[in-house]
Each structure stands twice: as C-alpha cells, then as structure tokens.
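I am hoping you can look over what I have pasted underneath with an eye to the fold:
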Amino acid sequence: MITKILVTLTVIMTCMWVLSNRANPALREVPNPAIEKRKKHMRIAAFVFMLVMIIAAGTMVYLELESRAG
C-alpha cells in the first residue's frame, strides 16, 4: 500500500517538474549542422539496431515454436 502511495507521489512530482521546466523557456541556441547530422545518423543507427533485434527475436521465437511442433 505504501509503495502505491510513493509511486503516485513520485509521478505527481515528476509531472510538476516537467511542467515547471516547460514554463521557463530556454535561450534560443543556434544549431550546429555537424551535431545535427551526427544526431540524425545516431537516430538512424538506433532504428536499424532495433529492427535487427526485432527480426532476431522473431526468428528465435519461430525456431523455438517450430522445434516444439516437429
């Protein structure tokens, strides 16, 4: 019971913290093209990695189910 209360209070405090950070706009920064390009490449690499992991997991599940059926 106490853990539910603590989790609820933590969620409320986190929401308040996020909303208070949105209320204070940060200074406008000029984006560095090299950093933006690196971020884009890292994002693409992360998506490719996730896709490979999903395909590998699906293959493992398929092979496991196939070995149990046959």
User: Anything to note?
Assistant: The mean pLDDT is 86. Helices lie at 2-23, 33-69.
